[in-house]
Amino acid sequence: MDTKLRGFVLSVYIVFGLPVITAHNDPSNKIMEDFSGYPIHEPQSQDSLLSLSVDSEGLQKQIDELSTLSETPAPSVTRILYSEKDVLARRFIKNLMGLSGLSVREDAVGNIFGRWDGDEPELAPVSTGSHIDAIPYSGKYDGVIGVLGAIEAINVLKRSGFKPKRSLEVIMFTSEEPTRFGISCLGSRLLAGSKELAELLKKTVDSQNISFFDAARFAGYANHLQDLTSVFLEKGSYSAFIELHIEQGPILEEEATSIGVVTAIAAPASIKVDFEGSGGHAGAVLMPMRNDAGLAAAELALAVEKFVLESGSIDTVGTVGILELHPGAINSIPSKSHLEIDTRDIDEKRRNVVIEKIHQSALSISENRGVKLSEFKIVNQDPPALSDDLITMAMESACQELNLTFRKMISRAYHDSLFMARISPMGMIFIPCYKGYSHKPEEFAAIEDIANGVRVLALTLAKLSLA
């Protein structure tokens, strides 16, 4: 059978999941059987999935080895952007990509790309990936399985004898976590063409007053350039993007469901608020005479909770993650307070209503308590992202073909996928994690669940590559 015709047959039957009604001896059946690893006229058995088998032992060793590249002792993992451990971890990932036969390149901020060229490389590739940076004292699975699992998914397809039509590309994103420079999803934001971020980074420094560009050059990036527009990707650079990730919530584990098919990503808005009062001695200044910046902050923190609950939706959340008082002495009335607020929703309008209520409350508190609202700054206000229907259909089909239970769900944590959705159609695959723990040393995902996620990812990549 002609190669293009074979690809067409695979596309029709595998991508769209159509029933096979051809004769038992039709050559196309043999092609499908060779790819899928099981007889298409017989019920699937456990042994039939060997052609999409994952090297679970090898993958777990890679996860464990990467976790040793940490600035804090086990079981915690700390891997900060452009640190010595981050540089070593990047080298580890590039080596694995090379061993898998991928062509490797990096951009000016250290996004790493490993490509498997398809039969029609002129077509927009299908991409997958995640991040490997880790906030202080976190775990070893967040982001990591989306990078190591993606490389293994490529290996799974290669071992099965699959030949992609569209090229497949694994991406390791730079700095999904905001730990060093206070900017989340830095690499994917730039890939999505954020001119504002490219300008902001020219004057961004960390807590040690090290500039972003000096830190990047330490790690071997930026090349003495101040212009980061070379990182930008045009819309349509990829035909699809899929991210494999631990759920970071308890639903899949509690329901004993193997896979979460993500339908939407709730977008965050971050707010910084500063109040200034008179301060004074805790004993000498009487209560009616006080302008307490600390109590202003406390009142606003409670208001955040109130406005979120008033939204009427369980999908609206708000958190005061930072509350700092100055001078921070037990016998001194706070003269300054600083809050950082995170509010999220899958409905952008509803979330923005909450933000405006928080702003109006801050103004009212300032007036009523006689303190100065010296800053109310919306740091970012990203729109939510919806998963692409064709990608979620491909994921669901893959789960069915692999006999894995799945459910549709929302991602309430944000990911690089939120920004990749501005470049290409997007989807996410969740797997269970222990008690929903994440961003802490107890974070854990069973290798069996990781392997299931890799299988679904591999089969989804295959489907989308042939589309």
What's the overall geometry?
A: globular
Number of domains: 3
N-to-C series of helices and strands? HHHEHEEEEHEHHHEHEEHEEHEEHEHEH
- The pLDDT mean sits at 90
Q: What is the radius of gyration?
A: 25 Å
Provide the β-strand percentage band: 15-25%
Count of individual helical segments: 14
Tally of DSSP β-strands: 15
In the CATH scheme, what's the topology name of the largest domain?
Answer: Aminopeptidase
CATH class of the largest domain: Alpha Beta
**CATH superfamily assignment of the largest domain?**
Zn peptidases
Major β-sheet annotation? 9 strands, mixed
Percentage of residues in helical conformation: 25-40%
In CATH, the architecture of the largest domain is 3-Layer(aba) Sandwich
pLDDT < 50 stretches: 1-33, 35-50
Q: What is the distance, rounded to the nearest whole angstrom, between the alpha carbons of the first and last residues?
A: 19 Å
EC number: 3.5.1.116
GO biological process, one term: purine nucleobase catabolic process
Organism: Olea europaea subsp. europaea
Enzyme class: hydrolase
